[in-house]
Specification:
alpha+beta; Rossmann fold; 18 helices; 20 strands; 16% strand; TRM6; nucleus; tRNA processing; tRNA (adenine(58)-N(1))-methyltransferase non-catalytic subunit TRM6
């Protein structure tokens, strides 16, 4: 993440009301903040994040709208309320009011109590119409309006320091024309979308996203050791995660942030500066040569004679007749023909979705996944930038390509055209042919890699039936991998816990390998009616209905939730917030992928217990 505001990036502006407004900082454009005003985007370009700005316009004596950086000392004084704390003079009645105020030994009131304070709207002398007139008149940045409102309050002296600070902060949020520039990260984006369109992200909260990343063991896998499967082709591990995301890309962004592939690299700035410096140097050299040619002087005349090179080309040497200095130069050395600029070397082709480690593979039911929220991090799935880390590390494929690749047209190899025929085609047709070949190679590589499995974990956040999703995707996870499923409601996840419970696992193994019975001395009993037992079990219910999932693939299924409560942290006023946003609670199903051993697992040892002999004393 960058430390300063760059052009063509999304920035979150926190308004005095506490709400967020995400804007695209495009150079030479005006940004409208509603009732707070409008400013030019160039005023914040290149400035660091986390600064608070105050809008100053012509009412403040400015010819045009400007921004003032509010110092931290001013912000802290307003938040703590130290500037507006009323001065309390000790009186003789302090001892009589000691039951209501905190009084020191010398009789001075240390802290005032507001039990007898009557908070009534009639104590405000200004009416709403007068306040609206002040706002229309334009009283600077809002401080004058706040000062007049507080000066017209009849009971301002009765307020305690805490209540006065709260009153002042409430008025500041309403009338001050300020905003704070913040970088767009996953936590801020989650809070922003949750306030506007919570249903699009399945009512996910930041604490739930943290729990998902923690239980899925999401981390950077760029240096993770890669193992080869038993077939010698498939890859096991390597920091690869499989996911199903129906939250518009919010879960994908959270996982990519933990893996270190969400934000563009800052090395691009240095590269651009080097390229600009190279171009500027080339232009200076061209201008210098042109000026020397126009003045009729060469570098040798300025710096003294140089030794002639034996292989110098005489025809290309700039010469002039010393007897006739007014004679123009030759046409080959005319100033109107400057030397051509050095062409940049072509950038090497970087295939998309080509990373082998530290990758995210997302499954979707449509032609392309819905990752609209990744645009706030500089990544557009329709036209991705090659320099973005997600260009190589984010892979996608449809359910059709995973389950039935032979039915997917994009998986079919296009017709191969020989080089001789390609040479006779037009450039547009050749480009179309190569584009189709690259698209097919990308799709085939992703589909084959996904079908071979070996992923480090599985993260599911979808409205589809979780049982049908896990049935197809759990076998693709390596042994020891983590399975995490999120759902706003608890009922689908309770059903998953039942499908993978130890009771159902025991019944499944009994059905697969038959019941196992032992005598008290540890010897097996012979089961003569195996056929009748199997018939009775098949008549009891269908195997697909009793075991929709293989319960031996997951171990230790658990169901949990979390909700972080917000706190107000101020000196003498630290307490949890009394109200919070409602909505779905949100639950998470977690389990560990295991590799069941082939065949029956038999316990060894003596099953009989020896009875102790108790001798009666007497």
């Amino acid at each position: 993440m960058h430390s300063y505001i760059r052009p063509n990036t999304h920035v979150a502006l926190r308004l005095p009301s506490g709400l967020y407004k995400i804007v695209d900082i495009t150079p030479n454009t005006n940004i409208n903040l509603g009732k707070f005003g409008t400013f030019n985007s160039n005023l914040v370009l290149g400035r660091p994040y986390y600064l608070t700005y105050e809008l100053l316009d012509k009412d403040d004596g400015k010819s045009k709208t400007e921004l003032r950086v509010v110092p931290a000392s001013e912000l802290h004084a307003e938040a703590l309320g130290s500037e507006h704390a009323p001065a309390v003079e000790p009186t003789d009645e302090a001892e009589g009011n000691a039951g209501f105020d905190i009084v020191g030994e010398d009789g001075q009131v240390i802290m005032r109590n507001n039990r007898l304070t009557v908070d009534d709207a009639s104590r405000q002398a200004l009416s709403m119409a007068e306040i609206e007139e002040l706002k229309k008149a334009g009283a600077g940045s809002g401080k004058d309006i706040i000062a007049k409102i507080m000066a017209s309050h009849n009971a301002i002296d009765e307020k305690t320091s805490f209540s006065l600070a709260k009153y002042t902060l409430r008025k500041s949020r309403k009338y001050l024309r300020r905003f704070t520039a913040l970088p767009v990260d996953v936590g801020l984006l989650t809070e922003y979308v949750l306030e506007k369109e919570a249903y699009k992200i399945m009512e996910l909260r930041e604490d739930l996203l943290g729990l998902i990343c923690s239980w899925a063991n999401i981390h950077s896998g760029a240096t993770t050791r890669v193992l080869t499967g038993e077939d010698g082709v498939s890859q096991v591990g390597g920091g690869r995660w499989l996911m199903v995301d129906d939250t518009g890309g919010l879960v994908t962004a959270a996982l990519a942030e933990k893996m270190g592939i969400l934000y563009p690299e800052e090395e691009d700035d240095d590269t651009e500066e080097e390229e600009a410096t190279t171009e500027l140097t080339a232009l200076e050299e061209v201008g210098k040569n042109l000026s020397q040619q126009q003045n009729g002087t060469t570098e040798s005349e300025v710096h003294g004679p140089d030794t002639a090179m034996p292989d110098a080309d005489v025809d290309t040497t700039l010469t002039s007749d010393p007897s006739n200095p007014a004679e123009p130069l030759s046409a080959a050395a005319a100033p109107s023909d400057p030397p051509p600029r050095p062409r940049k070397p072509p950038r090497p082709h970087i295939p998309q979705m080509s990373a082998q480690t530290n990758t995210l593979t997302i499954l979707h039911p449509n032609n392309q996944p819905n990752l609209s929220y990744l645009k706030y991090f500089g990544y557009d799935y329709g036209a991705p930038a090659v320099s973005h880390p997600l260009y190589k590390h984010l892979k996608s494929l449809s359910w059709l390509s995973l389950l039935h690749p032979e039915d997917d047209p994009s998986y079919d190899e296009p017709e191969i055209i020989s080089e001789d025929v390609l040479a006779t085609l037009k450039s547009t047709k050749r480009g179309t042919y190569y584009k189709k070949r690259r698209r097919w190679e990308r799709v085939k590589s992703v589909v084959d890699e996904t079908r071979r499995g070996g992923f480090d974990g599985l993260v599911v956040a979808t409205a589809m039936d979780a049982a049908t999703v896990l049935k197809e995707l759990v076998p693709l996870v390596r042994g020891g991998g983590r399975i995490v499923v999120y759902n706003p409601n608890v009922e689908p996840l309770v059903q998953l816990c039942d499908y993978y419970s130890k009771e159902r696992r025991a019944a499944y193994m009994a059905r697969e390998f038959g019941p196992q019975q032992h005598e008290p001395n540890g010897k097996k009993l012979k089961v003569e009616d195996d056929a009748e037992t199997a018939d009775s079990m098949s008549e009891a219910g269908n195997e697909e209905d009793d075991f929709p999932l293989n319960p031996t693939l997951l171990l230790a299924p658990s169901l949990q939730t979390v909700r972080a409560r917000q706190w107000q942290v101020l000196p003498g006023r630290t307490h949890p917030m009394m109200t919070s946003k409602g909505g779905a609670e949100g639950y998470i199903f977690t389990a560990t992928r295991v590799l069941p051993i082939e065949g029956r697992v038999e316990a060894r040892g003596h099953f009989g217990k020896k009875k102790r002999k108790i001798e009666e004393s007497g």
